[in-house]
Model the fold of this input.
Amino acid sequence: MGRVIAAVAYAEGRRVAEIALSEGKSWSEKPGHVVWIGIHEPEEAELRDVAQQFGLHPLAIEDALNAHQRPKLETYGDTLFVVLRTAHRLKDHTEFGETHLFVGPGYVIAVRHGPSSYTKVRERAEANPTLLKHGEDFILYSILDFVVDNYTPVVEAIETEVTALEQRVLKVPLTAHDIERIHALRRELMVIRRTVTPTAEVCKQLEHTESDCINEAMHPYFRDVADHVKRVSDHIDALREIVTHTFEAGLLLESSRQNQVQRKFAAWAAILAVPTAIAGIYGMNFENMPELRLPYGYYMVLGGIVALCGFLYWRFKRWGWL
Done:
């Protein structure tokens, strides 16, 4: 069931009234007024009532009902339709949400899907009436800036885990859990990048748009958000390289450890082959073996075995095999 989070009318950057959803259009048409409506996961009938009231395009409504859109900016007459994807870091994974914004003369309608809240955005905007009086373009900027700023702690949390995993891989062999976690982080970073990259395009489009809803004075603000997105995107690319390097380094170290073990096995096998071969020769039960009649023959053979084994041990130790 959809829920109206807030429906508020503003004039000159100050809250003047909390309104019913059905009153939104009439308030938005008042000179110097702007209506900011927030709806969470609306039902189809509820959203179509809003669309009929504000004259929203049916294609945009279809997109807003299906929360599986990539970030984008579309223009329908005098209305801008903006799709944003939100990200929130939980204990071991990132949870994504989606926000659809309808921005037109005197109104901003935010349709949210998933875990996202703009209460702080509204409080921050209301605390700055000088900028809020710009109207719908400042509200759009505030929401966009909030969404982009929330990417940073998500990426930083992943960076912390990647750094810890990198240090662990250098100290101990890769485990099945480590490999699964590395692949999970790579997939997560890929999804975040698919979210961030088109968001940068949205910011650039808003920076250069000539829509009546966007005052030219707001263009530098959207440029600033685009710069933030670019930094996040570069951070993600760097992390993806680190994750890939960590996995490759882990495989190389594991291969090196296996080679060391194999060399040790080969060295000890060569050392043990000496007494095995000599004992095999003397176990052939031939009588014509002169060493058998020597009084110290047994001790001479044992001494030879010890000498040969000692020599081999010394050589393998010098080569670093033992």
About this structure: The longest strand covers residues 79-89. The mean pLDDT is 83. The CA atoms of residues 291 and 297 lie 5 Å apart.
